[in-house]
Amino acid sequence: MDSYSLKSVSDLPDPFRSTFSFRYFNSLQSECFSACFHSDINMVISAPTGSGKTVLFELCILRLLSKFMSQEGKFVHTKGTLKTVGCIPTFAFLL
After folding, report:
1. Hey, what domains does the chain have and what are their CATH numbers?
2. What is the pTM (predicted TM-score) of this model?
């Protein structure tokens, strides 16, 4: 992937842009952006430490959250209905 095809954080909906402290996703993140943020497919990401896998998981969480947002950008959900499980070598958590 060349530098001209890097996805910008501004490609995310406005409420999610402040999640990331950088302007562009790296090449791995840019390549996987659509699968993580625009689809419900299952994925296994195998890449070296420090390559940006955690950001991909965060994009999947943002996709889940975006399903519960109103047009005004407010969350509309029943308490306890949003759950995510992450199994990552350095950490695991349940949201």
Report:
1. 3-94 (3.40.50.300)
2. 0.78
